[in-house]
């Protein structure tokens, strides 16, 4: 149970890192402000990110400190010193591709101008020491205090995306078959929203992979995580097919009422199975797949007979059935996760 969920785990970890960093600096007798600044920006979503960016921020902070010491020795505490220290720090970090450390290095450079006036070399090494303390403390806090559990967030997001995608499957096919596809802007808006949600979930998956280097998952948790990734990739493919549907002009459907009913029954069936595990029955699924596949090949034969009618473009019926058959195959893939096979392929 997370007692701090109402303010966020990263907020709590940042507060703890700042407290411990200031405590260590006071115990040593060094000014804590620069260490605290470094600690604040080093609490990243994963321990791996904290370490990677910490390796970049240390030399960047050293560059900022060096420029501050240089220009203080030349111009004293003046506006020109602030300006030159900031500009040179930014340019140097940019040229050396230390982008992750640019902000903290610039803050360090301009803040040092105000607080040091004598013993410039000693001040420079103290700044390096406080930066090291900030990096080390925040990384250790990120590693041991409230380690993130992205897997649970991924599970909830995949479940929500399944439901939203199933609704869009029903609505898009229903609008097409009823000839109500004139206004697709709202549908595109919903699909864009689903796409954004999937991108965020994919980002959380990358975070979980990085986090597993320092906090390995149990075998059962790893299996569930891999299954969620498998499901997410399937949802991404379904999203692709739905986008194809709404971006193709669908006109003059020649299906009979019986054929339309067969298609809509197949649509409702696959949408229901996508969002509810208990509804998935492979026999029923393949039976409905065969029905729409037979329709597809029947329409395909009709196209071959009347090739002059469609000299360059596929007819609307063929496009619709192709996308629906493809979605059926993807949903079958969605439920065909084999952890043992994946594990064997990696060994």
From TrEMBL:
<protein>
    <submittedName>
        <fullName>Uncharacterized membrane protein YgaE (UPF0421/DUF939 family)</fullName>
    </submittedName>
</protein>
<keyword id="KW-1003">Cell membrane</keyword>
<dbReference type="Pfam" id="PF06081">
    <property type="entry name" value="ArAE_1"/>
</dbReference>
<dbReference type="InterPro" id="IPR010343">
    <property type="entry name" value="ArAE_1"/>
</dbReference>
<dbReference type="GO" id="GO:0005886">
    <property type="term" value="C:plasma membrane"/>
</dbReference>
<feature type="transmembrane region" description="Helical">
    <location>
        <begin position="16"/>
        <end position="43"/>
    </location>
</feature>
<keyword id="KW-0472">Membrane</keyword>
<feature type="transmembrane region" description="Helical">
    <location>
        <begin position="103"/>
        <end position="126"/>
    </location>
</feature>
<dbReference type="InterPro" id="IPR052984">
    <property type="entry name" value="UPF0421"/>
</dbReference>
<feature type="transmembrane region" description="Helical">
    <location>
        <begin position="132"/>
        <end position="150"/>
    </location>
</feature>
<feature type="transmembrane region" description="Helical">
    <location>
        <begin position="55"/>
        <end position="74"/>
    </location>
</feature>
<keyword id="KW-0812">Transmembrane</keyword>
<keyword id="KW-1133">Transmembrane helix</keyword>
């Amino acid at each position: 149970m997370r007692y701090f969920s109402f303010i966020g785990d990263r907020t709590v970890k940042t507060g703890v890192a700042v407290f411990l960093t200031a405590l260590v600096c006071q115990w040593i007798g060094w000014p804590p402000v620069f260490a605290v600044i470094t600690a604040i920006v080093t609490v990243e979503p994963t321990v791996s990110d904290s370490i990677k960016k910490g390796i970049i921020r240390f030399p960047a902070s050293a560059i900022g400190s060096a420029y501050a010491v240089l220009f203080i020795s030349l111009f004293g505490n003046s506006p020109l010193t602030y300006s030159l220290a900031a500009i040179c720090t930014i340019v140097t970090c940019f040229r050396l591709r230390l982008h992750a450390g640019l902000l903290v290095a610039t803050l360090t450079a301009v803040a040092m101008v105000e607080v040091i006036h004598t013993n410039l070399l000693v001040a420079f090494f103290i700044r390096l020491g406080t930066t090291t303390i900030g990096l080390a403390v925040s990384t250790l806090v990120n590693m041991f205090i409230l380690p993130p559990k992205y897997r649970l967030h991924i599970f909830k997001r995949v479940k929500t995306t399944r439901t939203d995608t199933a609704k869009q499957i029903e609505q898009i096919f229903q609008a097409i078959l009823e000839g109500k596809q004139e206004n697709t802007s709202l549908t595109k808006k919903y699909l864009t929203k689903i796409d954004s949600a999937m991108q965020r979930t994919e980002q959380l998956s990358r975070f979980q992979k990085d986090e597993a280097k320092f906090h390995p998952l149990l075998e059962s948790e790893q299996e569930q995580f891999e299954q969620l990734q498998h499901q997410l990739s399937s949802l991404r493919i379904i999203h692709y097919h739905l986008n194809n549907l709404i971006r193709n002009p669908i006109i003059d459907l020649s299906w009979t009422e019986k054929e339309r009913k067969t298609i809509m029954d197949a649509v409702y069936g696959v949408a229901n199975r996508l969002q509810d595990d208990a509804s998935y029955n492979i026999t029923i699924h393949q039976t409905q797949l065969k029905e729409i596949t037979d329709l597809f090949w029947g329409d395909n034969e009709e196209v071959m007979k009347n090739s002059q009618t469609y000299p360059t473009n596929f007819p609307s019926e063929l496009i619709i059935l192709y996308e629906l058959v493809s979605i059926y195959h993807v949903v079958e893939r969605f439920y065909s996760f084999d952890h043992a096979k994946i594990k064997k392929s990696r060994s």
